[in-house]
Specification:
heterodimer, A: alpha+beta, 5-stranded antiparallel β-sheet, elongated, B: mainly alpha, 72% helix, flat
């Protein structure tokens, strides 16, 4: 039995089912990210003076990722427009680029996550704080080696860009360490928000890329059988991809710049 | 697998082939505008306005403009069906209510102290 309105629009809504479905889904997604953004505002605005970090993330990596997602959004619409014109090979080319962009975005994000997990704040018995990237190859049972610097207070870490490599190595005897913690989600409110928001966004990138890949590769034969249905599938997956881009457009300034 | 297909078979509900052709130029212009907007956002964030609020307002204004471009042109919201506008008007209402509740809670002293 054929499912009605899977390709042709319903007379009452003027939309085919999948398009109606994706917009309802995106509406729920707006509320999901909206709730997280409102949590961010609440926590950020009420943070006591000097306790909210600034420029802890690499702006240039964030900017590169923004360019990658914008470029991928352009290739998605160009792919869809190619199908509208009946140019399947061109569509394959554009969506192939979209998939490479998704891979590039996730690679850069993984690099940023790794950087945060290797970054440690070490409190010493004499009150000093050592801050820098762990050097696992040189760290032993007796000493911890960081590539970083000593700071006098925690507040000093809040302002200004954190250094990413190229700093002197500091050797800290383990018996002098009071506490040692990396910049994971547990580090403070900012890192918790950073990992929650970007982690959820990255899951959306992965999900979107899987669907785009499935339509681009294994399901490409549908183009032969029913080109209109295939074009609709590309349109629906594209709408989701643009939403992912839209969310990042707000995440980038909020987390990296402000 | 053929590389092309009769265009008439691929034509969908609202957009004709000619429209798709016309849209390509728009997509490219919007893409360039979005990239310029990104550079502008970074540049604006590095300027010292002697007020962080000013930086925040400027960054969010640019982000909102970019968001409008993505939703309006890439997602075709500027020329969509009434049903989608109806769905999104509910979303907009609840989204604004959510943000209003957040600001209302802060304005009335329900402060969350962050360590």
């Amino acid at each position: 039995m054929e499912i009605p309105y899977a390709v042709k629009p319903r007379p009452d809504t003027g939309l085919y089912n999948a398009k109606m479905g994706i917009w309802l889904f995106l509406a729920s997604e707006v509320m999901l990210f909206g709730a997280l953004f409102s949590s961010y505002i609440l926590l950020r605005v009420n943070a006591e003076e000097g306790t909210w970090p600034h420029h802890w993330l690499n702006i240039w990596l964030g900017m590169t990722n923004t360019f990658v997602l914008i470029f991928s959004s352009v290739t998605v619409v160009l792919g869809w427009a190619s199908l509208k014109m009946g140019r399947f090979k061109r569509y394959k080319f554009y969506q192939g680029i979209t998939l490479l962009c998704a891979l590039a975005f996730l690679s850069i994000k993984s690099f940023e996550y790794r950087d945060k997990f290797m970054h440690y704040e070490v409190h010493l018995k004499d009150g000093r704080i050592a801050d820098g990237h762990l050097q696992p190859a040189e760290t032993t049972d007796k000493t911890v080696v960081l590539e970083g610097k000593y700071v006098a207070s925690h507040a000093e870490l809040m302002e200004g860009a954190l250094h990413h490599g190229g700093e002197p190595k500091i050797e800290i005897p383990r018996d002098q360490i009071v506490s040692m913690e990396n910049y994971g989600p547990w580090h403070n409110t900012y890192t918790a928000l950073y990992f929650t928001l970007t982690g959820l966004h990255a899951l959306h990138v992965i999900g979107g890329a899987i669907v785009i890949f499935a339509i681009w590769g294994p399901l490409a034969k549908v183009w032969e059988q029913d080109p209109e249905r295939y074009t609709n599938r590309v349109e629906v997956s594209g709408l989701f991809w643009h939403f992912v881009d839209l969310v990042w457009i707000f995440l980038f300034p909020v987390l990296y710049l402000l | 697998m053929s590389n092309t297909h009769p265009p008439s078979a691929a034509a969908a509900d609202t957009h004709s082939i000619e429209e798709a052709r016309k849209h390509i130029r728009t997509y490219l212009i919007v893409g360039v505008a979005l990239m310029c907007g990104t550079v502008l956002t970074v540049w604006a964030s590095l300027i010292d306005f002697h007020s962080r609020e000013m930086n925040i307002a400027l960054a969010l204004t640019i982000a909102s403009t970019k968001g409008f471009l993505v939703a309006g042109f890439f997602m075709h919201l500027i020329s969509e069906r009434k049903m989608i506008y109806a769905v999104l008007s509910f979303t907009a209402f609840f989204f604004v209510a959510l943000m209003y509740l957040t600001l209302f809670s802060m304005a009335h002293g329900n402060i969350v102290h962050i360590q």
